Amino acid sequence: MKHKIIFAVSLAGILAGAATAIFFSIKTPALPPAFSPASNPYGSGIYAEGIVESAQTSGENINMYPEVAGTVKEILVYEGQQVKAGDILLRLDDSIQLATAEQQGSQAEAARALLNELKVQPRKEILDVAAAQVVSAEATLVTAQDTYRKEITAYRMDPRSVSKDALDSAANAVAVANANLDVTRKQYDLTKAGAWVYDIQNQERQTKALEQAHAASRALLSKYALRAPRDGVVLSINTIAGNYASPQGGYDAYTQGADPVITLGSSPATLNVRCYVDEILVPRLPLGSNMKAQMSVRGSNVKIPMEFVRVQPFVSPKIELSDQRQERVDVRVLPVIFRIKKPANVNLYPGELVDVYIGE
């Protein structure tokens, strides 16, 4: 009985080993690749890395920075929104600058009012007062002259009837009345002449200076609203309301660097591809009129023909794709820009990396 059990276990082990061997010897066919790798469609084409960007007449995407620093008050657009030139995209807190502009505007208005007051002089009411003062001075002079005449007449008739002191006082009163009349007449002429031309010129300069200061303050106030410089689409917004923004951009907690507050691009229907051709391959680069190119969208079998636009004639270190600005890079590249028409059934966005082959 014991031998039969051992024989059965051995047979079961042999059968299990045979089954395992057969199972693992079965070859599973390999899965087909999800997409074909980029291939050179030209006989002597050269390879370049490319980056999709919005179509611009020159340069790349529009990276927008505020010209003044402040706290973001409100953002009036969203990513992907079409905007027109002059549309307000973002506002910064302008409460302090607004108060400053209003204060300078009030100062300019006060200076302008004073200038107008000088130009309309003499004021009729003031001139009437000056004329009345002349009449009063003339009457005072007549009274003083009459008094002196009486005193001198009495003195001549009887020197003992009027004291020498009273006679001198009457004479002095006439002299004072004459002087007062002369002053009031000159004051009347001065009032009638109006403001002095030099006072008007000085006030004109002060008014102009205050108006220019107010205009400069208003111009600075307008900088607290970030406006679209041209028609386009909002590609990215790198800040939120409450964040601090400056002419250096907004702080990015992930990269610990400064990013543009808003990136603006052209219509997504037409895009550019900026290719970076290795300096070793530059001598093999065809002439612009003969240049053809094809790009491959990574992760797909999509291949899109491209139209040559221009060459940026400046060979620079290959740091654009890695953004390592402090790194010493030996590889230098020549930027070549192509234009593509985005297919309707392809997802393609600015900033996407693509493979490019350039040929004739």
If you had to describe this structure to a student in words, what would you say it looks like?
With 360 residues, the protein is α+β, with helices and mostly antiparallel strands. Among the domains are: 46-55 and 267-359, Efflux pump adaptor protein, beta barrel domain (Elongation Factor Tu (Ef-tu), domain 3); 63-92 and 225-264, RNA polymerase II/Efflux pump adaptor protein, barrel-sandwich hybrid domain (OB fold (Dihydrolipoamide Acetyltransferase, E2P)); 122-194, Helix Hairpins (Orthogonal Bundle), CATH 1.10.287. Helices cover 39% and strands 25% of the residues. The protein is built from five helices and 17 strands. A six-stranded antiparallel beta barrel has the order 1-12-16-14-13-17. The chain has a six-stranded antiparallel β-sheet with strand order 6-5-3-8-9-10, with no helix packed on it. Strand 8 and strand 9 (249-252) form a beta hairpin. The longest helix is centred in the middle third of the chain and has 34 residues, at 124-157.
Structural class: alpha+beta
Give the integer mean of the pLDDT values. 86
Low-confidence segments, ≥5 residues, pLDDT <50? none
CATH class of one domain: Mainly Beta
Please write the string of helix (H) and strand (E) elements.
Answer: HEEEEEHHHHEEEEEEEEEEEE
Q: How many beta-strand segments? A: 17
The share of residues in extended strands comes to 25-35%
What is the annotated CATH architecture of one domain?
Answer: Beta Barrel
Write down the Rg. 47 Å
Say what the CATH topology of one domain is.
Answer: Elongation Factor Tu (Ef-tu), domain 3
- Output the strand order for the largest sheet: 1-12-16-14-13-17
